[in-house]
Amino acid sequence: MVAPRTALSDVVGALPQAVNPLALSLNECPFPPLPAVRSALRACDEAANRYPEFLPQRLRSLIADHDGMAEEQVIVGAGATGVIMQVLHAVTSPGDTMVMAEPTFDGYPIFAQMARLRTVTIPLDAHGHHDLDAMAEAGKGARVVVVCRPHNPTGTIEPAIEIERLLTRLPEDTVVLLDEAYVEFLAAGQRIDGPNLVARFGNVVVVRTFSKAYGLAGLRIGYGFCAPDLGRQLWRMQLPFGIGLSAQVAVAASYDAEDQLRQRIRMIAAERRYLQTRLRALGVYSTDGQANFVYLPGGSLPWPEVFDGTGLQLRHYADGGVRITIGSRQSTRAVLGAVTAAA
Ligand SMILES: Cc1ncc(COP(=O)(O)O)c(C=O)c1O
User: Fold this and answer.
1) Is the pLDDT confidence value at 2 over 90?
2) From 3, 33, 100, 285, which residue has the greatest number of CB atoms within 10 Å?
3) How far is the CA of 81 from the centre of ligand 1 (A)?
């Protein structure tokens, strides 16, 4: 006899697959959570009848210790998304202006709409880089300026010195969101010393996430850090009971397993370089991506047609560009197979 389908089995059946070589549209980590993280998470089930902390003090302290900052400098949210919205709620009023690049992470136009902000968008150049001069100019009348480093969708990074130059040109009461969602993929020499930066610029909030390199997108954990004065202002907007019990456990377990995580990050970066090299050999230009994805601008091959029928889930852009998340070698082969057939 066939068991009746229940709503629960439907819901469980609809969960995304941890391993899916075709799922390359959201810049997720292609690996399931580390065994040590999974087993730590099981401990949360047993305490699910209890609320988490009223405000996520312990998680904040864990992150502050890990990144070498004072607790009052750190805020925590439901992913970087939650952190960005918290910042916008704390520092903007409806009608204020937010400056950002175009194209950028899909979330930003949505966040701006939710906070009822006016947006000024500054086009990236042909190689996917920010026009920081134009951003500095536009930022003079703005409440918030957003710079993603690496940028999404192009994966490019602006030199640290250029970011500092931008900061010196912006008014002190313009808040700068330095979005480092993909920072863990950068080599040490490419990174900005975040704690040092926020010590010198009181208007900068560095935003990070456990969704990408840490591979915990489904748990929704992100954080931001900034100078203590701004940190205290942002913490006042911290949602009571807003961070689930599992976040603290997952972060602690991830920090304990950092060697294994770093190995995974190296594998993803190596796979990205392999895909970039092979694309170049096929005569296909990709921007100088430094994160866990590559971006093929529009105007060369018709990317939607090239990948049509392959089953690959990719992020296509209005100008014809396509962003491809790095997955396994199987994913890379599927991408290269489609490009080879078209090139
Ligand atoms: C640049 C950038 N910022 C923020 C986010 C949001 O990440 P999350 O809310 O999962 O932490 C993303 C996700 O793709 C992103 O690419």
Assistant:
1) no
2) 100
3) 6
